[in-house]
Structures are given as C-alpha cells and as structure tokens.
Write a structure and sequence with these properties.
2 copies of one chain form a homodimer.
Chain A (H helix, E strand, L loop, with lengths): L2 H6 L17 H26 L5 H12 L4 E3 H8 L3 H13 L3 E5 L7 E5 L1 H23 L4 H20 L3
Helix pairs in contact in A: 2-6, 3-6, 4-5
Chain B binds a DNA duplex through helix 5.
Chain lengths: ~170, ~170
DNA sequence: CAGATAAGATTTCGCCTACAACTATTGTCC
DNA sequence: GGACAATAGTTGTAGGCGAAATCTTATCTG
C-alpha cells in the first residue's frame, strides 16, 4: 500500500516546506464549499428524519425516485444511476425496502434480465409523510438564503460542473 | 422500525395519488443538483487517486487539513469538524495514517485531554504528490466550466446555505 | 442453431463510518 | 477542597457501501 511513499518520502524532503494550500485556488475553495455544504445539509436531513422516527435518507431517495418515475417503477440499473450508487449497493438497499413492504420487485416480460423496483401503496404513503420533513429542511437551507432565481442559477451551475465530471474521460 | 407506517399506511391510501414531485420546487432541484454533483465529483477524485495508486480521498483530506493548519497540526475535534465526520470515525482514520507513517499523534501539555494530529515529512511529501491529481480533476470540473468569478460566487452561495444548515437549530 | 460476447442483477467479501458507551481530564460551584 | 458536570478522545459494535466475481438472460456471428 502507498508504494510511492517509500520512493519519494526521503527523496524530496524539501517538498514539506513547499506545500501549496489547496484553498488558494478559487476552484479548490468552491469544491471545499460544495463538499462541506453537502455534508452539512445531508446531516440536517438525516437528523430531521431520525427525529421524526422515519427511515434513513437513502430510503427516501429510493421512494422519491420511484414515485416520480412512469408507472411508479424503475429499472434497478437506472435507479442506481439516479442515486449515484453502485448496482450492488442498490440491490441490498432495495432488499430492505422490500422487506419493509414499501416497494416490490417486478419483472420485465420482454427482457427477463431486468427487474423493477415498484412502489407499493405503503411506500407512497410513507413518502407522502416524509416529503414535508425534507422539503422543510431544504426550504430552511435554500429558500431562506436564495431567491428562486438564485436557486435556479445554482442548479444550472452545478449541473454544468457535473456534466463535465461525468462525461469527460479521465 | 418505521412505526408510522402501520398507523398511516392504510389510513390515507389516497395520498398515493397526491404525491408531489420533489423536483417541482427550485430548491429541491438545487439540492438534487448539489447532491448529484458532489457524488459525481467525489467519484472522479477517488478514481483518479486509485488510478495513480494513491491512498483514498479521506487520507488526502486529513493531510491537506493538517498541512494547512498552524504548526501543521490539528486537534482531533477540530479536524473531525473540518472533515465533517464523527470524532470516533476520525480516531480510526487517523490511526491508519499514523500506522502508515504519514502523521503522528502529539499531545497538549497544558490540557492533557487534547491530542493533535501532526504532519510528518512523509505525509507532507505524499500530500505534495497527491495535490496535483486533485487539483487537475477539480480544474477539469470547475475551471473548464466556470470563470474564477463564477467559482467565487458559487463558493459564496454555498457557504451561505451551509451557514444556515449548520447554525439554525432544528 | 451453437458458441461467444454483452448486459442486467445479485452475491460475497472486506473496509469504512456512525452510534453509543466508556475513560480521562478539566472546569464549576458550594 | 471535593462532588458534579462538561469536554476531549478512544473503543466496541453493527450496518452500509463499493469492488469484483457469479449467475442468468439477450444478442451477435458463423
């Protein structure tokens, strides 16, 4: 592990004094703000859900995504991509929701490889209860500070960044 | 678990048809963009580090934070807050870095409760190697799409949101 | 139609993180 | 000065997530 350490650790000790501060660049700062803001808001959402005795945030994300999809169902792969988690992780996440009776697995008849996560009434009802909690917290964090116009600009800016982060090859 | 389900699931079945789309609000959209962008960029950074045979992203964050601190050392609690992780989690994260010889634990003589994570030369050198990888990826994602001025505005906007998310009590 | 290749999903495994309980030190109040 | 609360870190435990291997089904090719 860390093969480069033994190579360079003693080779360039002067580097220790020449460390550039990452915060020196506007982009590094922007990334730091993005990262910390995401963490802070996520924490808030999780706390709010826990306090109301609701399931954790990933459950909400699954329910919300599936509910917004046509026929209130989504292919596992698409759902994983939407939540930005791996398919393996999603499989088990969906397992828990199925066990809780919130969604069910349905299967495609034309292509028997694909399976859907399909919303159940209990899931829709729970989602309806959870949404206000999330919405209120987001309103507190965003609406309180940003006009609708600003929020929209923020969204657009972030989407642009994400587009590059996803599309452009490394 | 999920006590509210049994209460409401059958009580308000009509809610299933009255689900509001979270994407309908500008703030919900902004949050979605923030969340997905963070995930996408994080993934990029992790991949870039792994591809260069470097330690994972949290290690970089520790090294960067400590390197930027006065005397290149930070109290555990402050470090945990800076990284937005729990103190317990940080203890073990620091354990790994100590074991790898990148940082060391030092202690405060005036208050013997506090311990510092202190940068070692090997850590500084490794950081110097890792920084370009991170910087390049961030430049790709941010500089390519945003002017310095836009990046700065983005940072300010996010900080404002974060301020509310942290400060306002829930 | 048989074999090869690709795509979708699941399973196995191990690491990492949060949560809660615990220890040790410091501060406060009477 | 001693009891109690508060603060700083660590530890023990459980659970979630990612990486890679596996299994099944589709599709392509001769």
């Amino acid at each position: 592990m860390i093969r480069r350490m033994s190579e360079q650790a003693t080779a360039t000790p002067s580097a220790a004094n020449a460390v550039e501060r990452s915060g020196a660049t506007p982009h590094g700062d922007a990334w730091g703000a993005l990262s910390r803001t995401h963490a802070a808001v996520t924490q808030r959402l999780q706390e709010a859900l826990a306090q109301a005795d609701f399931p954790p945030l990933p459950w909400y994300e699954v329910l919300a995504a599936v509910a917004d999809a046509p026929d209130q169902r989504m292919r596992m792969g698409d759902l994983a991509e939407a939540l930005v988690i791996t398919r393996g992780g999603l499989t088990k996440l969906v397992d828990r929701l199925v066990k809780a009776g919130l969604i069910e697995r349905t299967f495609c008849e034309t292509d028997r490889r694909v399976s859907y996560a399909t919303l159940l009434p209990a899931g829709a009802d729970l989602l309806a209860e959870m949404r206000p909690v999330i919405t209120d917290e987001l309103a507190l964090a965003f609406s309180a500070n940003l006009s609708d116009r600003q929020a929209d600009e923020l969204r657009e800016t972030l989407d642009r960044v994400r587009g590059t982060a996803c599309g452009t090859g490394g």
